[in-house]
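Slide 14.
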Amino acid sequence: MKRLASAARSWRHVVLAFMLAPLLLALALDPARARDPAAFDYGIVPRQIADGVYVLEGHKEDFSTANGGDIANTGFIVGIDGVIVIDTGSSRRYGEQMRAAIARVTPLPVVLTLNTHHHPDHFLGNQAFPPDTLAALPETIAGIEAEGGAFNDNLYRLVGDWMRDTEVVVPRRRLTASRQVIAGRDLELLALGGHTAADLVVIDHASGTVFAADLVFNGRAPTTPHADIPRWLDALAQLERLPARRWVPGHGAVHDDTGPLRQTRAYLDWLSRTLQGAAEGGLDMAEAMTLPVAAEFRALALVEHEYRRSVVHLFPAAERAALGSR
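Slide 15: predicted structure.
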């Protein structure tokens, strides 16, 4: 019991530190930019990666006033008579600028707007898109309803006026796994999970492009606030069996082979084994945080930061499992 109480106190201290750290970082960055509406330009430039398939690549960074929350990849697919949007970014401003970027590519209307999961950098731009086009898996909709307001408030604290007038808009359309022709494109929607309770993967069969969302990271350490690592690893195994020609990760560069999947899987394997070993070895949370990142992952963006966050997210369960097995 003393050990559990000690672990709980350590956890509270760590959580408080992680709540304060981003706020201190935001204050350290350029405050003038956050006061000047004329500077709120994400510089969105869609990059065509296949016929009719475009990606808007985010920064491999954490949320800050310097990037305005533009840290995730979004994209869109131009069909015969409409556009399919994949994720809407982290703010109303981002969504509006993404919508304008799409209009520079094609005059066709947006007919479907997909939220791949309920993390804020993927859905808080929903306001900029027609409400009747917004769609997500049922568990994602439930996650946005339950946590969207808190996510929105937190991003206001982290990135300031980039979030001005941003409100949570919950998708109306509930998706199921299916393969169908949408706007003349042969698309398949896969309902997976592991990064969150529900992770939508979008396959454009004509181009062989897979939008894998945050099930796949490339060159950046994965985030784990809602992770179920065994389920995540199973989802990656399913993805590796797909006959894809290119992969769009949720964070990091587009890739033409399964390298990012293997990298993500290897990191999650290491993370799981490390936390399990620490708990079974009797370490507490603070001690687990001091463990070194394996050499093969040290080049990943934000790896030290994300490892410590993952300890906060995942170590209590590993510790309970270790104590329960004794």
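Speaker note: The first strand starts at residue 47 and ends at 50.
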